[in-house]
Each structure stands twice: as structure tokens, then as C-alpha cells.
Design brief:
Blueprint lengths: L20 H12 L19 H14 L1 H4 L38 H10 L20 H11 L29 H13 L3 H4 L38 H10 L15 H13 L9 E6 L19 E4 L1 E2 L14 E8 L3 E9 L44 E7 L20 E7 H5 L5 E6 L7 E2 L8 E6 L3 E9 L15 E9 L11 E2 L3 E5 L5 H42 L1
Helix pairs in contact: 2-5, 6-9, 8-9
């Protein structure tokens, strides 16, 4: 049974399509916040028989839930496809990336069930397990849509086809992760030259140019394996082992079955797992108070004594141009202050050092604002200019310009005319040119550009360093200023803080960026000696009151005891 014809490669030019806003928002959220793999990906039983009724059930599910991306014909040409990177799978080619079968082979039923259930983190492919998301699919519905998807691939109908003959198993004896095993894995990583693509630290910075493409002709960015939420096929050692063993069809990632033994691949998987970043869970950044000078450089050892806070980001999809394919989704912050100043350290992974900015290539948002149209989302292939030496890298810290009242805060996307925000914007091209790299600006909503403050009110200084696929930016300013548009840092207060980041080589500039919601920074006030005094006084008062109550209780009880004694004597 076959629906549609073979479409060939997906790299031909495409007409601009209108993407329904609701669909696009869902896809944008899926790109930035895909559900991570969980244990509930094992089917409770075998796939049901593919009867005509069962296939019809799968077709209905596919049309409603899958066709917007994968297309009605299964060719990866759905209306949302041209807005997603990576593009949705073209099922008609029979190329499946995440499998437990040999390189180039089709997946097993369980492989497809796992992908549909878990989704693919870091892509537009959401999880469909109804046990983890409200709008998911039941197990029976997942099996039905899988059966229907298989009708797009003639090889599945071959009577002699049996993927289980091509399956790759996990090692029978898998030693538990240990320092020795991880050290062995590091040796394999070096010997197999994995660093040539993934970088020495696994941050994806081994690639020096956009010279890698998939089998459909689209450029590939090497995966940062230190971020488990970006490892599409699963972040556990068992999942990583399988990627080394099977390869990833349609990509430059080969199979290492013939090059590395089972024990080497298992050691390598444990080494990669050991590189994974462990996210902090708090949303309040505690600034460390010191008596001496604040650190000027990002590599100052004093930073290691300050508490870190991870800030997650997503693409800016609130206003045109909406950007649903961000590359930076995590920034780690630290803060240190003394009696006069406060300084922040912002660190994020970026495989390319982008220090050039060509203003002529900037996107005109008005081109996307077609009357009656919906495609205010940016096409990452035909519209966004994603290449090296084009746009600069940049980061901005955002604070409310006015002290918040209660729980009220400005909108995290540049505030509003009545609730402005104070922006500290660092730009890599200015840093490289030896100019003042940080600019203070005031934002009064996203509909107008943030306005730079007058030169005599520019009080934020900063410097940055890039190395091994990572930017580290330091920004410093006096705690308080006389400028009403500036945030004021007062000990004991909780100050809202948000982050914006631009990756130049990803085509990001202007409103095309990653952004976070509000977090907080607090300058913990030192404990005054009066607090201890009040504590001692409170304990003394409490003790005295307790003694008083005991004495009063005994006093009230004494006459009653005397009456009881007299009654006993008379008896």
C-alpha cells in the first residue's frame, strides 16, 4: 500500500508559505522545549495487525497530528516544514536516523515507537506519549500511525524484510560508570578523532565552517553533546552507545561498529555522558559580597566562589520577526559585588566566534508584516542569512528601570512605555575593534528600538573572551546611579533579571534572538549584630513568660489542692 510518489531531495527552492499562527507557536515551543526522553517508551505489547481499519485509524491520526510537518504524502513537505531546522523527515526516502539496526537499515517497530513516544529533543518533533503530555496519543494510536507511516516506504512491504536480523545489541557485560571507564572513553574520543567534529570539550566547536550537509543538501551544525536535552536519540549511556554503533543515517555521523570494539564504544558512551551539564534548579541569583576589588577578567578564580544560576532561553516568537530556530538556549550567570559596584559573568556555549556585523544584511521586519498574512515567522533557509562573518554575537542583561511594586514586573520582552527596562548590551564586533563593548539602553516595549542612554550616563563597563566554543562576558557597574532609567542594586532586595542572546552565525540580529523570562538577582544583606541581640532578648522574654504561666497555674491549683486535703481528712 503506497500513498504519493517519490519526491527526491528536499533542497529545491520553495515558495514562501503562510504558517498558521497557532501551529507555528506550538512548533516554536517544541523546538525550544522538547520533552526529554523518559523511561515510558517501551510498548506494553507487540504492534497490532495492520488491518484496513487499523491503517485508516492511523491515517486519521497522521492527518490531524503529523501532516503539518511531514506532509500529506509523507514527503516532509508540510506547510510548517520550511520554517523548521532540522526539517521534518521525508518518509518516502526510507531514511530513519534513530534505530537499533545496522547503518543504512530500516528501524524496528520498537525503534519507531520509541521515537514517536519520546519525540526528538532539540527539534520540532514533540513527544506523543499521552502518559507525559495531555495532548498525546494512546499506545494504540501510536501503533496505528506507525503502521500508516510504514506505508510510505515500500521496503517495509518486502516479504523478506526483517530488521531484527540487522539489530545491534548492547554489550552483554556493561561495567558501571567509573573514573577508569571514563578515562578510557576519553582516550577513545581522542584516538577516534571525535573532537574533529564535536570539539575537545564536546561543545560542537570542531567544525570550522558550514561545510557539513545532510543527504538532503541542508547544512548541519555539529551537536553539542554536553547538553543532554539536545541529544536527539536519548542522553543515557545506552542511547549514546547505540548512536556510535548504528550511525545516524542521512548525516555525516558514521557507524563505528567496525572501527571500535564493544568495550571501546561503551567506554566512549560513558565519557560522553560524563560531559553532560547538570542544570541548576533555582531562579534566584545570589550575588557574592567581597571586601576587595571585583574581578575584571572572566578567568579570575574568584568567580568559582560565586553561586551559579542557569538561565534557559527560547526563541523570540512574540513579535515579528518571530524566530523559532535559536541556537543558544542556556546562559550561566554569576554575580559578585562590594560596597561600590556589582559585576556579572555571563557564560554560554557558541561554536563560532562571530565578531563581524554587516548592517546591510539585516532583515527588514516590514517584509514579513504582510496584511492579512501569517508568516511573521522567519524561514531559516530562504530568509535568514545564516553564515559566518555576517552578524555579530551579543548578549544583553535586562532589568526593570523602576523598582517593582509587589509581584508586578514589566513584560520580560522589553517592558512597555509605562514600565521601561534597563538593558546592558555587549557586542562582539565592538569588543574585537577595541571599542567600548557594552552599551546601556532603555527599552519601552518591543515596537520601538531600545534607545541608547546619553554618553555621560553610560556607566557599564565590560570585556569578554571566547575559547573552546564558549563565550564568557563580564559586565560591571556602580550599585546605584543618579539616572532614573537605571536599575538600582540595594542589599536585601530581589531584582528581576532576564537575558537576551544573539548568535551571529545563526543569522540572529535585532528581534531574532533567544530570550528568557524573568529570574531574580539578590544582594543578600549581611546579618546585623542586632538580629542576634533581638534573638537573645526574644528567648529571654519567652522563658520569663513560660515561668510566669507555670507560677500562675500552680497558684490557681493550690486552693483546690487544699480543699481536696480537707475533704479527705473529714472522710
Amino acid at each position: 500500500m503506497r500513498f504519493g510518489a517519490f519526491k527526491g531531495t528536499a533542497s529545491k527552492p520553495r515558495k514562501r508559505a503562510r504558517l498558521p499562527v497557532a501551529i507555528a507557536l506550538l512548533l516554536s515551543l517544541a523546538v525550544g522545549w522538547s520533552v526529554p526522553a523518559m523511561a515510558a517508551d517501551t510498548p506494553s505489547g507487540p504492534i497490532p495487525e495492520a488491518t484496513p481499519e487499523f491503517l485508516e485509524q492511523g491515517r486519521e491520526v497522521y492527518v490531524k497530528r503529523c501532516s503539518f510537518c511531514h506532509g500529506l504524502l509523507g514527503d516532509g513537505e508540510g506547510p510548517a516544514a520550511e520554517f523548521l531546522d532540522p526539517r521534518p523527515r521525508d518518509f518516502t526516502l526510507g531514511v530513519f536516523k534513530f534505530r537499533t539496526t545496522d547503518s543504512g537499515e530500516l528501524p524496528t517497530n520498537e525503534d519507531m515507537f520509541r521515537t514517536v513516544s519520546n519525540g526528538l529533543p532539540g527539534t520540532g518533533m514533540q513527544a506523543f506519549d499521552d502518559g507525559r503530555i495531555k495532548n498525546g496519543l494512546s499506545e494504540d494510536e501510536r501503533w496505528a500511525v506507525i503502521a500508516y507511516i510504514k506505508t510510505f516506504v515500500p521496503e517495509f512491504d518486502d516479504p523478506e524484510f526483517d530488521p531484527y536480523k540487522k539489530i545491534i545489541s548492547l554489550p552483554a557485560n556493561r561495567p558501571a560508570s567509573s573514573e577508569a571507564l571514563i578515562a578510557k572513553g576519553r582516550e577513545v574520543f581522542e584516538h577516534a578523532k571525535c573532537w574533529e567534529c564535536h570539539g575537545k570539550q564536546g561543545r560542537g566547536d570542531g567544525q570550522k565552517a558550514f561545510d557539513r550537509k545532510d543527504d538532503w543538501g541542508f547544512p548541519i551544525r555539529i551537536r553539542n553533546v554536553t547538553f543532554p536535552w539536545k541529544i536527539k536519540g536519548g542522553s543515557q549511556a545506552e542511547d549514546i552507545y547505540m548512536r556510535f554503533s548504528t550511525g545516524i543515517n542521512g548525516t555525516p555521523m558514521p557507524s563505528f561498529v567496525k572501527a571500535l570494539g564493544e568495550d571501546e564504544r561503551w567506554a566512549l558512551a560513558n565519557f560522553i555522558e560524563s560531559l553532560q551539564h547538570q542544570l541548576t534548579e533555582h531562579q534566584v541569583l545570589k550575588a557574592l559580597k567581597v571586601d576587595g576589588e571585583l574581578p575584571e577578567a572572566a578567568d579570575d578564580p574568584l568567580w568559582a566562589t560565586a553561586e551559579a544560576m542557569d538561565v534557559r532561553l527560547a526563541g523570540q516568537v512574540i513579535a515579528a520577526p518571530r524566530w523559532q530556530n535559536p541556537s543558544i538556549d542556556l546562559v550561566t550567570l554569576r554575580a559578585i559585588y562590594n560596597e561600590q559596584e556589582i559585576t556579572f559573568l555571563a557564560v554560554w556555549d557558541d561554536p563560532f566566534k562571530d565578531v563581524t556585523h554587516v548592517a546591510e544584511n539585516e532583515l527588514d521586519p516590514n517584509e514579513l508584516r504582510v496584511v492579512g498574512g501569517y508568516n511573521t515567522y522567519v524561514n531559516p533557509y530562504d530568509v535568514a542569512v545564516r553564515q559566518l562573518e555576517n552578524f555579530r554575537d551579543s548578549v544583553a542583561l535586562q532589568f526593570p528601570a523602576k523598582p517593582p511594586k509587589g509581584t508586578a514586573k514589566p513584560h520580560f520582552f522589553r517592558g512597555s512605555s509605562s514600565e521601561p527596562t534597563n538593558l546592558w548590551i555587549w557586542r562582539a564586533d565592538r569588543e574585537a575593534a577595541g571599542e567600548t563593548a557594552v552599551e546601556e539602553a532603555t527599552a519601552r516595549g518591543w515596537k520601538q528600538e531600545a534607545k541608547a542612554q546619553p554618553e555621560d550616563q553610560q556607566q557599564v563597563s565590560g570585556q569578554a573572551v571566547w575559547g573552546q566554543g564558549r563565550w564568557s562576558v563580564v559586565m560591571k557597574r556602580p550599585l546605584t546611579t543618579e539616572d532614573k532609567a537605571d536599575v538600582q542594586f540595594i542589599e536585601g532586595s530581589f531584582i528581576p533579571l532576564a537575558v537576551n542572546v544573539w548568535d551571529g552565525s545563526n543569522g540572529e540580529h535585532g528581534m531574532m534572538m533567544s530570550l528568557s523570562t524573568w529570574h531574580f538577582v539578590t544582594l543578600e544583606a549581611p546579618m546585623s549584630w542586632t538580629v542576634y541581640l533581638y534573638g537573645v532578648i526574644a528567648m529571654l522574654v519567652a522563658g520569663a513568660l513560660s515561668l510566669l504561666f507555670i507560677w500562675l497555674a500552680k497558684r490557681e491549683r493550690k486552693p483546690q489542692d487544699e480543699d481536696d486535703d480537707e475533704a479527705e481528712a473529714e472522710a
